[in-house]
Amino acid sequence: MVLKIFFPKCCNTADSGLLVGRWIPGQDSAVVLAVIHYPFIPGQVKKYLTQMRSQTKVDLTVLGSWSMPKDGQEGMDSFLKDLSTIFPHSRWLQLSRESGKRAFTCRVVQENGKPAAKKDGDDNDDDDDDKDKIIFVHYDQRKVMLSQLHPVQEQKGSEEESTELRTMFQTVAQSEPLFFHDMYDEGPLKLTHWQSEGREASIIVELVKQASVPVCIVLTWLLSVWHWLCSFRIFHVWPVQFISSKLSTCVQTGYRTDHFQTVFSTRKATTHMEFMRKANIFVSFLVDIALGLLLISWLYRENRISQLANTLVPAADHVAKELQELLEWLMGAPAGLKMNRALDQVLGRFFLYHIHLWISYIRLMSPFIEMILWYVGLTACLGLTFALSVLSDIVALLTFHIYCFYVYGARLYYLKIYGLSSLWRLFRGKKWNVLRQRVDSCSYDLDQLFIGTLLFTILLFLLPTTALYYLVFTLLRLVVVMFQGLIHLSVDFINSFPLFAMGLRLCRPYRVAEGVKFQVLSEEPGTPLHLRMEINPLKFSSVLQCYRTPTYSCYPKDSWVALCKKLFIGELVYPWRQKSTKTD
Amino acid sequence: MAEEGPFTDISGKPISLECQNYTPFCREFTVSSPKVSLLKVMGYTCSVWLLAYAVFFLTENTTVLSSAIMVTLVGMILHIHFVKVDQETLLIIGSLGIQLSSLYASGRESTTFIEMSKIKDIVINEAIYMQSIIYYLCILIKDPSEPDGVASVVPLFQSSKPRLNCLVRVYKSCQEIIAQSR
Predict the structure, then answer these.
(1) Any idea which GO molecular function terms this record carries (chain B) (predicted)?
(2) How many CB pairs under 8 A join A and B?
(3) Contact state of B113 with A4 under an 8 Å Cβ cutoff
């Protein structure tokens, strides 16, 4: 069997001493975590190891001895051989390295004292089969400690289910307390690991950590006050609730409050995914606010608000005028088609009256538009997503008449189609059986047939007129829906994009690891195999997929075929559906 | 270092195979594809620019010319960075795993490592590709829920597509190592 030893790069040049680490259960591998130097007292080493074991929950043991003789220290070898009797072991590793040579040599001693293998150049014994093969894997201790292997397995499964690499990563990550002891500490032991040159920390990070606790408490209290306000009875009356579920600003507010609850909760994030989610939400919220403030600073400069208000009323007027011209065109002979004069006039006059009402309403509001816009623009300081939601709501309100026309036209058309299909069945002598949900034959009386045929003819000849009105208003409605859909998509994008995870992937790619890469280090013949293990970072698309914040994303409710079918029949179409509950 | 030739890929272009034996249980195989041929590059560039000149002659608009230049440059950069694979390497380390890596013409390297505990076997599979039958080497990944099942198949040497003689050499070497680690 091949024995794998994971050796940290920082210990390559360490002085002679004892190897401390962990044997990975079930596999023939060992992870070396630190080297304890001479002089030491074995009793203190054992005490330190027991203390570390209880602190890190990792079963640390003494794996073996490490000898890197400097000048004047040739007498270490025999001393090292005696050490194996002091510490309990199933296998004892004797690693040694000569200065000037790059490769290690290793001897493995079994518990009964017999050497299990010797790996050196000139072995010509014929029992090749039970010769142990040894691989040294050099790893960067700090990077492996900080990194997280994906796909993330949150539950603490049994060790046999994790693969070897995952167990190794977990071991190094859990042994963080072992690396607190550096060479400036006045303890009885001297260790070498990645932090033995001294612990580094940033004052700003520590201050922020201390300050964040009271800030979180204050913000959580504010959030509870807001929840209490929102739970008033007046907000749960049906009309208010219905309107607030349709307005995207209210939806966005509710969504952001949920976010704040996650981020500002006083409980520290225990798992990796929780921490990443908190960080992503916090960073995207900050960027949102920054973009909103940028928008405000651009909007409120050089009187842009009044310019906007001054163009808004003429724009609404222009739209209404265009609609009027469209209706006049429909009431004539549109595209050379001949309409039914009477129905045409009725429908046309009906819609023209609506537009007249709308124009008077806009004219009534025009003195207040500028002030309304000024105050509404201030909401952009709550974030760019708010500004976009408000814009979407304003567009919805301003094009409300188009929505009304669409509903009228669609209902009329739907009734006509329904009536036509039913009378067509009568024409052929069939009937729809509601009980059995199928078409049955039926014998009609003569007067039933007569009236049915008359009605059928009337409806059929009135069909082109209604169909044309329906077509025109459906197209207008679809244009508005497309525009609103675009705004919602961009809001959703800003909400769900994991900025923190992307930044981490760019600046500290070893923290989001997809796997590892090995490189064979050039070795001298007759020495064990040395490999360098590096962290393979996650691809950007996988980062996006893994860390996307779940949102109330708007997505098309029906497929294209179903949508076309609904449009053909005349059923009311609401192409974008909002998920009311978050799903992962 | 052992090199045998001449190996070809399935369309007849010459490729080269290098095998390196680091230890009895660690081997590396590198399949190199032929480099981008200068004639092809010149042919494409000339045709695109002639077309741009023709359009410029008709429309008298200089943006056509500059956009043709930009298109050629961007297209070449995208091709050598994302499409053209120079070398594909298979590093097999007994009882640790198998590492596959592709080296693109721009120097970018994309690597995947599959652990030995997840690997069921390495086999040569047949596939019907248009009107011909080709062979490809692939790694079978174990299914965690089913002890004898195969969860997925990872094909190797997809860009260089070597022929059966090359695949058989790699297959025999890999089987020796995999048999040892069972």
Answers:
(1) glycosyltransferase activity
(2) 50
(3) no
